[in-house]
Here is the input.
Amino acid sequence: MRHFKNISNRDPFLKSSICLVLIPFSVFIAIAFAQAEWSSSATQNLPLCTAENEQRFPALIADGEDGAIVAWSDARHANRDVFAQRISATGDMRWNANGIPVCDLPSSQSWPLIVSDTANGAILVWGDTRHGNQDSYAQRIDANGNKLWAPEGVPVCTHPTLQDDLHAIADSRGGVIVVWEDWRNGNQDIYAQRIDASGEPLWEANGVPVYRGEGDQYDPVLIADGEGGAIFAWWDISTPDWNIFAQRLSADGKPMWNSNDEAEITPVPVCTAIGNQGAPVAVSDDNGGVFFVWSDYRNDPNVFTRAQLYAQHITANGDALWAEDGILVCDLHVNQQQPDCIRDGHGGFIVTWWDERDIFADIYAQRINANGEVLWHDEDSESEKSGVPVCTEGGVQRRPQLVPTDDAGAIVYWLDYREDFADTTEDAIYAQRLDANGKPLWEMNGIPVCNAPNSQITPKAIPTSGNAAIVVWGDARGSDEDIYIQRIP
Here is the structure.
């Protein structure tokens, strides 16, 4: 018997108002090795930061030594700052207790992003209000927590209009590429900037347009193209329907797809089917191209009540390889939302999502090869394209995400409300490991990463050795929200 969950609606078309950011560091930071170790208890876990006031929205990358570097938004000084911590493979805190400040100016620094600098350090990006409006800044720190760029960070974009919904990736050359929604032209466009390993912007000041079109463009995503540039996608409402478009920028910030058009450079259509499409995610095809997956309402008789997931394979030259407007990931006519994708290491990808085929949201997954063929099949389903169950426990499961394992499989982790009853909201985080054939390797319906009292939110994870993962999240078990971390299994 399933239990009703009292949770907030997380529609994938509601764009986040929280900006992501890179973070400035100062000179030398003394290192205090705090002795700790990974917890074996899903109700205890390992506290990463329990400083006064709230700590939220952690993000992490691998540190190159089987540990992690974590960044988060921190209110210990009564405004939002960016702090960071490095944790070893054995669970020891490598920097000062409760982390070190990356940027702690009197203004607000919002939700940080973090990417690898390819030298065991990190580059952080964040939204920043030091000039009154929302700008974006970045900082690089080394393996010891020393700031390598200007003490308060380098500007990514300081145009006087709003920059929102930042995303960042490593550029594969020791730098970072950042994309955001931008209002400088009177409507919402997509802009991007590349910053090299020394903190110098490589494209125009305040960024170059990825697409500057009529109407508004939302939810940009990007992947590195392996040559210093990136492939971008977004959903576009310049027509009555919401559609998905893409563009590739070269290492010097020049459009590479449809770049010979006489008029305004036009992007490549990923999906322009009837109805609305949005919330795209992207993953590399290991050959310079990209797989896109998105939520699609073309078969929805109403509006935003039943999305299905579709996918498309675009080459490095911008050519679509699959059917026009994409192929179905799951052919069941049930609501499917919040996809996440990773490469499978063999030229294809693995995708996970939640759907409501059994009334309340459960977690499913599928593996698709480069030809668009599904590789995982549920023996209990009459459909060949229904995906495999990851968690069908009572209650609601949401926000599934993936990290790869060594064997073309994956670890799936998600927010879980199986213990949520009546008016009590008890978030938890669960995980499951799938092999290359989509078979679960851990307990049925997953193992608890954290089922401590009160809410656990915004989990993020990285893979680590031994087909394991390190997971970090915001946790409200104490008097305010803190940051906790766990290695699984």
